[in-house]
Specification:
Elements (H helix, E strand, L loop, with lengths): L10 H9 L8 H14 L4 H6 L1 H7 L5 H5 L3 H8 L8 H19 L4 H6 L20 H12 L7 H10 L11 H9 L1
Helix pairs in contact: 2-7, 2-10, 9-10
C-alpha cells in the first residue's frame, strides 16, 4: 500500500498526488494554469478543482495566456453560465487580468517562469507531518508582492505558497512519502 500525504481513496486525487503535485513546473503557460487553478480553489476543495480541470481548460482556451488576455465582458458572461467550471465572477475576471499581466510581462522581455522560480527558498526542509506545513512563508509573501507588482490579482501569500507547493518550487511531500523522493529527483 502506498503511503501518501493526501489523496488516498480517490483515483483522480491519487494520480494528482503521485504524478503531479510537487513536481517542478516550468513554462509560462503551465504556470499560468496552475496559478489560475489555485486561485479558483481558494475557499474550495482541491478535489472540486481537479474534477473540473478539463472544463477550466476548455473554458480558458487551454490556458493560453495570449488568448485569455483577449477575453472581453461577453466572455465573462459566457463563463458565468458554464457549469463545467467554478462560476465566480471575481475569480474569472482575475484569470483574465492575470493573462493580460503575463502578456505584458512577456512583452517587457521577462518570463513568469523566471519570476516565480526566483522565489525558490535557498533551503527547504520537508515536513514530517501535516501540522508542520505553513500557510505562508517569507518567500510566498515576496512572490505574491512580485506578482502584484507586475499586475497579477487574486494572488496573496497563501495562494502563492499553494502554487509553490504544487509547482515543485518547494517540496512539501511529507518525509516518508515516495512521491516526495521522486519530486526531489526532478527538481
Amino acid at each position: 500500500m502506498t503511503v501518501r500525504c493526501f489523496g488516498t481513496g480517490d483515483a483522480l486525487y491519487e494520480a494528482y498526488h503521485d504524478d503531479e503535485w510537487g513536481r517542478p513546473v516550468h513554462g509560462d503557460a503551465d504556470l499560468f494554469e496552475r496559478f489560475s487553478l489555485e486561485a479558483f480553489q481558494s475557499g474550495l476543495s482541491w478535489l472540486t478543482i481537479l474534477r473540473k480541470r478539463e472544463g477550466f481548460r476548455r473554458a480558458f482556451a487551454g490556458f493560453d495566456p495570449a488568448a485569455v488576455a483577449e477575453f472581453a465582458a461577453a466572455d465573462v458572461d459566457r463563463l458565468l453560465l458554464d457549469a463545467a467550471i467554478v462560476r465566480n465572477r471575481r475569480k474569472i475576471e482575475a484569470v483574465i487580468a492575470n493573462a493580460r499581466a503575463l502578456v505584458a510581462l512577456q512583452g517587457s522581455g521577462r518570463t513568469l517562469t523566471d519570476l516565480v522560480w526566483s522565489h525558490r527558498p535557498a533551503r527547504h526542509r520537508r515536513p514530517r507531518s501535516l501540522a508542520e506545513l505553513p500557510a505562508t512563508t517569507p518567500e510566498s509573501v515576496s512572490l505574491a508582492k512580485a506578482l502584484k507588482a507586475v499586475g497579477f490579482v487574486f494572488v496573496g501569500p497563501t495562494t502563492a505558497y499553494a502554487s509553490m507547493q504544487a509547482c515543485g518550487i518547494v517540496n512539501d511531500h511529507l518525509v516518508g512519502c515516495p512521491a516526495g523522493t521522486q519530486a526531489a529527483a526532478g527538481a
